[in-house]
Amino acid sequence: MxxxxxxxxxxxxxxxxxGAFREVASGHGDEPDVRRTCEVLASRIDGQAEKLAPxxxxxxxxxxxxxxxxxxxxxxxxxxxxxxLLRDLQDLYALSxxxxxxxxxxxxxAQGLRDQELIDVVNACEQDTARQLAWLKTRIKQGxxxxxxxxxx
Length: 153
Prior knowledge:
This protein has 5 helices and no strands. It has helices at 3-27, 32-59, 66-74, 81-113, 116-150.
């Protein structure tokens, strides 16, 4: 069974994503909405990892490095200015999308196994991830005109 591989991928993805949200919060502290929302989302992602832990204990996990490599490629450090914020949010969106599709794959396995505990975890966490993606998309849309047209960073 390869579920352990995807559980490891998901655990790594969650840790990487929470860390990335914290980096963006810290790096863009001059944007209060970004700082506070990123901190809240990082905390919620920590909660997802906690919910997943009993399932990982049951099925095991094989650690995968893809999300960490994605993070390393995207977040050497946060960028500055309006365009920098836009790029950092876009990188968060890419990491969140990776996490989202990984939840989907794990959810399909949960249904195949008829594992109600895992199905419940996936359903709750997929909703959280959808909210992350929605906030990121909205914030990117909000910041894009100013950063790309009006500002001169």
